[in-house]
Amino acid sequence: MNPDKEVTKKLRPFYGHIDNVELYPGLMTEKTKPTMLGSGIALPFTISRCILSDAVNLVRNDRFYTDDFNPYNLTSWGWNEIQSDLTIASGSIMYKLILRHVPGLYKSNSVFALYPFTIPSRTLENLKNRGDNYWKSFDYDEPVISIRGPAKVPIDNYNDAMTVLNNNDLFHVTYTDDMKWITSEYGYFLGWNEKREHDQKREKLEKAVYTDDQQTFLNGIKEFFTKTTKHLVDTKQVTLGDGTYLLDVVRDVCNIAPVYFVSNYFGFPLKTEENQHKLFNEQELYLLLTILFTFLFANVDQTQSFKLKQSSQKISHVIYDVLAEVIKECRRDWYGVVMKSTHWKHWPLDISEDAKNMIKYLESNEDNESAVIWNILGTAIGAVTTIGKAASIILDFYLSPENVGYLAIMRMLAGKNDQKSENLLLGYILEALRLSPVVPGLFRIATNKTQIFEL
User: CA 154, CA 149: separation in Å to the nearest integer?
Assistant: First the structure.
């Protein structure tokens, strides 16, 4: 079983004879194959020939892992979900099984879930040997088994909901740490629980966006979205042979109009048909900001959380570098952007006056350039996905058979310029969003025991 006399000496008092050795101790003490090129993981004889080979044979004869293992049976989503990703846990997918079947026990970056069947201290040592800071992405604390986890209490009463939302000291937001993660520990006012600091930053941002006249800004926004939407409808439609045209209104209009908004008002360099000399095209910028939004506000799938976290930090720092150049462009006529694995390119930015005014206001009222950039990015993250999804929901709601009759009234109201018509139109919009909200709920963490429900 093992020629090592020291192993034999320790086993003899317990078992007396080799035939009496139990299975598990025998498997652990049996001599392994010699380590050499091509030896693989150098398992003991019994494990490799009697157990492992049997397991391989079972897999090879299982139709679910052979003939039926394809996208047709598993769906495209299912097929992609089970593919190995070398950037996560060295390509393992066992962590998905663990996180889904014991929800809440492990953190999404726990080495106990991502690297099961390994010794955490050795995993830490191996990760440090990579020579970078990747090891800092993981949590090495042993999970605490709790019979009863934190209760999730739904609140659907208006007064109770306002009690929670207005008490930042007792009810904290869930995304403070995530905000700091993507903003190099700076954060964003939405993630600050201290009310005074939250309100001060919010007021400062409102002044930066609205400048001196809020109503003038809102009128400008209305005109901007009207022109932008018409432009997108005209340019994105595909004319068919019978005189009709095809348009993916969600992908090419609802999602993209707010991208033009953050480009014009916050200075994001947007590549369009009219201007090809920019960094991001419409869909790229929408995707980048939506990934950040998902990480902050819709990060509900633990199996995707780790990768989402890593991707979000990379995206935020790429955008940071771009916005840093945008800020410099407010002080000069030309700028250069260093693109990884490419050479320097010098492009005129043509930043709008709206963006310049906002950036200059923030620069004069913030402590440093980083604070300006993170405030711009935080506002853009919330704007693009929220506006795009809201527009899509409203369209879907009023294009449904039971509500399509309201469209004629809404068109009539939209064609008028009086305040009463605008208020009525707003009522139709809010009703659609009330019945089908942009987000399923706002989450808060109670820092102490309390009772808020109306009796």
Answer: 16
What pLDDT was estimated at residue 340?
40
Cα distance between residue 60 and residue 67, in whole Å: 10
Q: Looking at 330-368, list the stretches that DSSP marks H as alpha helix, in order from N- to C-terminal side.
A: 353-365
Q: Residues 148, 445: contact at Cβ < 8 Å? A: no
Sequence-distant contacts of 448-453: CB under 8 A, at least 24 apart? 448/170, 450/170, 452/155, 452/160, 452/163, 452/164, 453/155, 453/157, 453/160
User: Beta strands 444-446 and 171-173: pairing type?
Assistant: antiparallel
Shortest CA distance to 111 belongs to which of 123, 129, 100, 101?
123
Instruction: Give the pLDDT confidence of 98-113 residue by residue, as tens digits.
Output: 999 988 889 999 999 9
Alpha carbon distances (Å) from 360 to 3, 207, 374:
78, 12, 15
Cα separation, 108 vs 123, in Å, equals: 16
pLDDT digits (tens, 9 = 90+) for 185-199: 888 777 677 777 778
For the chain, what are the domain ranges? 84-149, 158-446
Give 171's contacts (C-beta < 8 A, 6+ positions apart).
164, 165, 444, 445, 446, 447
How far apart CA 146 and CA 360 sit, in angstroms, is: 51
Tens digit of each residue's pLDDT (9 = 90 or more) over 310-364? 999 999 999 999 999 888 887 664 344 443 433 334 455 678 888 888 888 888 8
Return the H-helix or E-strand segment holding 30.
none
Report the CATH fold assignment for 158-446: Cytochrome p450 (1.10.630)
Q: Across the strands, what pairs with 172?
A: 445
Distance from C-alpha of 205 to C-alpha of 229, rounded to nearest angstrom: 26
For strands 335-337 and 171-173, give the pairing.
unpaired
Torsions phi, psi for 19 (to 5 deg): -70, -15
Side chain identity, residue 218 = L
Which residues have CB under 8 Å from 140's CB, separation 6+? 111, 120, 123, 124
Mean pLDDT of 416-431: 92
Q: Is 283 left (phi over 0), alpha (psi -120 to 50) or beta?
A: alpha
Residue 389's contacts (CB-CB under 8 Å, 6 or more residues apart) are: 254, 438
Q: How many angstroms separate the Cα of 254 from the Cα of each of 73, 233, 405, 411? A: 33, 10, 21, 18
- Tell me the per-residue pLDDT of 187-237, one tens digit each, with 9 for 90 and over: 877 767 777 777 888 888 888 887 667 788 888 898 999 999 999 999 999
pTM value is 0.81
